[in-house]
Predict the structure.
Amino acid sequence: EGHVLIIQDFAQLEFRVIAAVSNCRKAINMIKTGYDIHMAKAIEIWGEELIKKSTPKEVKMMRYRTKNELVFPAIYGSMPKAIANRLNVSESKAEQLYDKLWVDFPEIKEWQEEVLKIYDKKRFTEIPPGRRRYAPLTRNEILNSPIQGAASSIVCKAMNILSRRKYWIYLNCHDELVFCVKEKEAKYAAEEIQSVMESKLY
């Protein structure tokens, strides 16, 4: 009683990390302008006409599937055949979507190749800011460890800062944080929490 929950999340955290580490100009511009990359790719998969005819719930599911069955699997090393199986489309369609992703984000593809090259030479993959994960690793583990590891570090750093400021972190789910604060302090707390989460954590 007398307390409220404040929910804050790092919007598209892993996509922000990959945009930063690869210095992908288009991805960075999309993030800055609020462009929804997952929705844009959903249109490429299912077509604008079908999406217009779909209910909001169906559109939300298409976007979710695009993010988890095309965009991130490709970034994390999945090849067209695996993507075709995930999306239940032909392999040729998956190849078109896969190739188009790298036309849009060539710097991410270059980052992938560099990370794989370093692993082949040194037998580890680096996780910002300064950790390593050693062989044996699969292609997907080599590529997703730096991104998911960095994202996890960012969330943990924010949690550490905020807990030292006496905020009760009620729940952490992926890149979402839930705080329990006194109702009379909610406005100030929400502003301070947002300020910390938006700051340069690494």
Observations:
- The longest strand covers residues 3-9.
- The radius of gyration is 19 Å.
- The chain has a mean pLDDT of 94.
